[in-house]
Predict the structure.
Amino acid sequence: MSRFSYLIFLCLLALVHGNFPDDPKPCKYGDTKCIVSIINRLIIEKSETGDSDINIVKFEPFPVDKLSIRKGANSPININLELTNNYIYGLSTTRIKSVRGFGKDLTKKHELRMFSPILSMVGPYSINGKVLILPITGKGESNFTYANTETRMSFKGQIIERDGEIYMKLVDFVANSVPERVYFNFTNLFNGDKALGDNMNAFLNENWEPIYLEARPEIKAGLQKRFQDIIENVFSKIPYDKLFVE
Ligand SMILES: *[C@@H]1O[C@H](CO)[C@@H](O)[C@H](O)[C@H]1NC(C)=O
Ligand SMILES: *[C@@H]1O[C@H](CO)[C@@H](O)[C@H](O)[C@H]1NC(C)=O
């Protein structure tokens, strides 16, 4: 075969098989070891580029347009914090540790456990209020870094039929992240008063745990749906039975 006709042959082959690319090879249903390594390979290879064939968006860095934390006077962090056009850096370093589910019956529970050595949400912030009775105010760039974070995501599948194919929709999606430590860094606190700003950053980092625990529900609410979307995109593009083999 000439090179050209070989190329045409390859293209036709790709069209016939379509769907999930042959490399990496699809896993068997419920072959959790294979599924772990295939997802890790996708994270390593696709995080900085995305891949429209399997509907993965670029997620290194991962944009977070808006995240607000507003707490009333009854909270130890009585603040109004707005993050706009931030990015999360480090998702490409996340590795899947184990999975459950992904068998033939897609309506069963599926679970992913993963570990991220470092995740930083970085970008413009504005804050005012009181943190553990100390007044805080500022507008600038912030960096919240989670070190050594264990995350567990779980969901159930729901069957969606489209054009004679079966797709999986994610329902009851829950994601829980537990960082070993959280670091805060706000630049330009108190109109750029360096001494006050350094003191406040030091204070926030000394008290990182109660502050983080108090802010966690809002952070979770702000991010969970976006992570669900990354996963759901793949399942909404490729029929479930084309993702796995018998
Ligand atoms: C955010 O802070 C972490 C830890 O303090 C640091 O490693 C990282 O480089 C910072 N990221 C940016 C974009 O400044
Ligand atoms: C906070 O961020 C600023 C600007 O990126 C950097 O110069 C400073 O070293 C950081 N402070 C800490 C404690 O990481």
